[in-house]
Amino acid sequence: MKKIIVLFLALTFSFFAQAQNTCGIIREAAVQNILQSKALAKKYLTNGLPEDEKYIPIKFHLVGDTDGQNRVTVPKVLQTLCEVNQEFDDVGFTFYIKDDFHFIDNSVINSYSYSSSVVHNLCAAELDSQAINIFIVKDIIAPLGTPLTVYDPTGDWIVVKNSYLNKLAASHGLGHFFSLLHPFFIDMNYTVGSNAPITMEIDTSSTCAQNCETVADLICDTPPDYISIHLCTNLPVQYDYCGTEIHTMQNNIMSYYTCDNQAFTTGQALVMQGDYLKPSRDYIRSNYIPNSNIITQSPTLVSPANHSTVAANPVTLDWSDVPYTSMYLVEISKSINFSIEPQFFITTQSELTISLNDADKYHWRVTPFNEAYTCTEGLASITWSFQNTVVNTSEILDISNWALAPNPTDSAIRLTIQSRKKQDLIIQLIHPDGRLLSLENKTVIPGLNQIELPQDNIASGAYIIRLISGKASECRKIIIN
Prior knowledge:
The protein contains seven helices and 26 strands. Strand 2 (54-64), helix 3 and strand 3 (93-97) form a beta-alpha-beta unit. Strands 2, 3, 4, 6, 8 and 9 form a six-stranded mixed beta sheet that branches. By secondary structure, the protein is an alpha+beta fold. The longest helix is centred in the first third of the chain and has 18 residues, at 27-44. The protein is elongated.
């Protein structure tokens, strides 16, 4: 049994009704999904939540328009992952960044249309088959509204609107990924925009226990949720059909409230652990244990010296190693608050060689992090500045930037190339005396490309990497140890 509440504020309520649909939840299929998760939890988790931590890979797809604009910033993604891991700590899940971030420049994906087969196919082509895939986009367009986050059960991926990327949106989407439903259930039999009353079914599980396995989210320790409003204020008194007063859990991550101290219930955690055990989740299970050590130190910048003048282009930025760090975020901008032409680079080394577009004053800073510990927003280095006096003589118009990292290197030569279009490139390794040592033909796609070149049997020393596109070329110096 369940109690039916009739609401007359159709316009106000339409947001919730639409979002119920546009979270990607198809009720019938979602119910079967959660029932399977509950069955596995009942079979294998008889003693409650397991003690062993589950390390789960995430591939973040940072989507921009075709020209590279309207993309979420890397620091925002790092902070969100930090907060998501805090919220999932009691669940027993730790999420980690798999193989760096993936940058996509595609305006079609960036205006994500949930019902578009074209968008679906474009996203499917970008998937990492060994991770949870989260696409962070500018807009989400759905049949009944503009939601903040969507779980696509067909593709098994999550989409989050970049202007609302935070722990609540990301954790809510991950909850759906692991088969959780909303703690309310809306009857969708109504006409959008009409003034007709809207009916909503209330979960009466907390007080009418015989009902809790079959209504709303099918979880008995999530209190009834009637969401007549979504602000964190005192709710009007409501009663279930047993006559018992309802006490909604306004900080439940799967609700539509935005209260502080968001959390999952134990029942929700058990369902997610059960979902993790499904054969269909084999692709996110591995024996890999990521670097999750807590970082406590900030990098110390070394060069270029603060307020110095640099008569070179490209420029090598150098800083101190930080214990337990496996990756560094390097930010550089023409403004001290990093708001003018900001650039973001991720490197595994404590130095980075970059090409600058203009002779101008630049500001830079470095933030350490590792695969599973990204709570380092307060550990950014101090900001230094330098004046560059050499104009970039770039001749390849459709390459906006490219860099060599690490440089110097004692292993493979790695190039990061930001291209405006798909194009064929020739990459040459040249001896200082002009001899051609190696040549590689590569095709790059719009967006960020990472290319690795072997340097076997090359003696230590300074060399030149030449990038050629048609009749245009650019050169960088590489030091091989």
